[in-house]
Amino acid sequence: MKITFCCDDTWPDPWLKGLRETLPGAEVSIWEPGAPQADYALVWAPPQQFIDEQAAGLKAMFNIGAGVDALLPLTIPAALPVYRLEDAGMSVQMAEYVCQAVIRFFRGLDAYEADMARGVWQHQRNPRRAEYPVGVMGLGKMGARVAQALTVFDYTVNGWSRSPRELDGVTCFSGMEQLDDFLASTRILVNLLPLHAETENIINARTLGLLQSGAYVINVGRGGHVVDADLIAQIESGHVSGAMLDVFREEPLPAGHPFWTQEKIILTPHTSARTLARDSIAQIVGKVAALSRGESVTGRVDLGRGY
Ligand code: NAP
């Protein structure tokens, strides 16, 4: 079995080592133009040339991330099954990150940090939990885990997905027809949608305006979900009180971008849920084995739908 690795911006050594250890009989190599045909591919943001040279002979292609937006601009034969990572150790990281952001906003920890740095000992008004309903956009592997983690702290939790979902302790909304009701029920907005044509720019002046006053935005989906200038304007107007952003239209976030200097925005460098090589390899190798036995596996991407 031949496995090719074509992952932009990814340190290949742990992947090659892990694949070779887990599949000792396999030939594992880094793709380069003109490389021999492989049976399976691990990809992250591959170039079109990779698809043109390899796709026809591949049995399956595995995206080494949960989001497949980097594949959507490519021309990929419909017959080639594409799989994405399903959780693979990421949802617990996402739950940690989002819970800390929600707690930071709810408890006013930024204000306390600023006070303590100035030597000021004072208490903020006691926040009322009921005044901070959280809304999670996207209730898939990441969003469902995050929503349920938030219920542990007794927050009011809303969720929004494309098709109707049921989650214990979460008020679920679905479809464009319920988007406005979901937003109006939400003060802290968490974005965990996949980026595709229907969700691009979904966090904009109109949708931010529907959030409850004193809103917060936590974006851990993709930068393309947010209209940057609209978020800045809503913060400047006071309707949005702050944001914690992990993902950006351009990464690294360019020098001079207004997010760098807006003091009500906290930034992290796309680190809310890192891909874990060991967990991901175990999942992918398990799927390769199942596919080789003729079984079907979960996590197949519908490229037409966009996720
Ligand atoms: P997933 O399991 O495919 O879940 C996607 C969710 O979004 C589903 O609930 C889906 O609705 C919903 N959705 C998709 N299109 C929609 C639309 N047009 N309207 C309303 N809801 C829509 O994906 P996942 O594994 O949870 O990952 C979600 C995203 O998180 C990824 O695509 C990626 O962009 C981001 N992510 C970021 C990081 C990071 O480090 N920042 C790490 C991992 C993932 P249905 O349930 O009806 O299908």
Automatic annotation (TrEMBL):
Keywords recorded for this protein, A-Z: NAD, Oxidoreductase
Domain D-isomer specific 2-hydroxyacid dehydrogenase NAD-binding, first and last residues per copy: 101-272
Lineage top rank: taxon: Bacteria
UniProt keyword NAD present: yes
Statement: the UniProt record of this protein carries the keyword Oxidoreductase: yes
Gene3D superfamilies documented for this protein: NAD(P)-binding Rossmann-like Domain (3.40.50.720)
CDD domains per the UniProt record, alphabetical: GDH_like_2
Pfam family, one: 2-Hacid_dh_C
InterPro entries for this protein: D-isomer_DH_CS (IPR029753), D-isomer_DH_NAD-bd (IPR006140), NAD(P)-bd_dom_sf (IPR036291)
Name the record gives this protein: 2-hydroxyacid dehydrogenase
Organism this protein belongs to: Comamonas terrae
